[in-house]
Amino acid sequence: MQEAIKQYIRTLISRGLSHNTITAYRKDILQLNEFLKKYFKNEEVDLNGITRLYLRDFLRELSLKGRNNRTLARKATTMKNFFQYCEKNKFVIKNPAVNLQIPKFDKTLPKYFSEKEMEALLNIPELSTKFGVRNKAILELIYSCGMRISEIADCRMNQIDLNTKIIRIIGKGNKERLVPIGRMAIKAIKSYMRIRNQFVSKDSDDTLFLSKSGKSLSADEIREILERYIMLVAKTKGYSPHSIRHSFATHLISHGADLRAVQEMLGHSNLSTTEIYTHLSLKDLKKVYNQAHPRSKKED
Fold first, then answer.
1. Which residues pair with 207 in a beta bridge?
2. 13-33: string of b/e by CB count within 10 Å (b at 16+)?
3. Which alpha helices (DSSP H) does 177-275 contain, by range?
4. Phi-psi region for residue 174, left (φ > 0), alpha (ψ -120 to 50) or beta?
5. CA 232, CA 77: separation in Å to the nearest integer?
């Protein structure tokens, strides 16, 4: 099983999956491997000796430890993907996870900022410093184009065309998508480009956003920067840098954007993933309706 895990992780890396996704898969499979050891002599897991009952026992034990159905569903999906790979590559004769049921769970609606809150967030960076100018450009670009933090961190200078106002985003699985850049984001990027040489050092490359030392600004560093700003705006818990991407999609749909166009800009493979933002938009519409329509108001 150890060899199968190694080769599977190499395959995920070659597919261009994000570091966080690969780390999650590795953690889930290693946890499964550790659990299965009790069923085998010398704690060496024989892939062909694994049954569906063993996998169900693994999920049941996690459930008894208090893991919710969302977590169990992710673990089950990981097992299905892993054993599908093992069957395809002749590590197992029969896939033990083929009929494994994925636990159902209620999808929670993602947190997003109101347009007023988003405006406040975008105006936090202090433009009298080079760091403020850089951070303003990061914020504006995420909100303007719905980019993931990892996509911002990996963005290269040649991916942005300021003349056509288009950015070429390289997303999950190295899939490319072209997304328009808004007027305010263009303005912020131009301001940053004028002072970018103040960050440049011998360690710099063509990454768009650079750190204090001149190296590429990592995804973790970007998250840390944005989280400090978000704390100043968010009124409740649960908001994260990814909430800016959710706000991008929600605000577009609220103003009548075509769902498939939003899907394309977000880089979603399935339209069903994008449809959650329709529910968010309807939630806002219902709130407005209940506040404004004379037939919806409660009697005094």
1. 156
2. eeeebbeeebeebbebbeebe
3. 183-195, 219-230, 242-254, 259-266, 271-274
4. left
5. 37
pLDDT for 61-110, tens place per residue? 999 998 888 899 999 999 999 999 999 999 999 999 999 998 886 666 78
* 231: Cα separation from own chain's centroid: 20
161, β-bridge pairs: 166
Beta bridge partners of 168: 178
Q: Are residues 71 and 135 in the same domain?
A: no
In 125-203, DSSP assigns E strands to 160-161, 166-170, 176-180
- The residues carrying an active-site annotation are 148, 172, 242, 245, 268, 277
Q: Which residue has the tokens 């395959």?
A: 11
Q: Are residues 135 and 173 in the same domain?
A: yes
Q: Which of 239, 248, 219, 226 is nearest to 147 (CA)?
A: 248
Q: Record the pTM.
A: 0.69
Total domain count, the chain: 2
Can you give the residue range of the structural domain that contains 250?
115-290
What values do phi and psi take at 260, rounded to 5? -70, -30
pLDDT digits (tens, 9 = 90+) for 215-270: 999 999 999 999 999 999 987 888 999 999 999 999 998 888 888 899 999 988 88
Rg (CA), the chain: 23
Instruction: Look at residues 28, 53, 88 and tell me which one is the last residue of a structural domain.
Output: 88
Residue 22's beta-bridge partner residues?
none
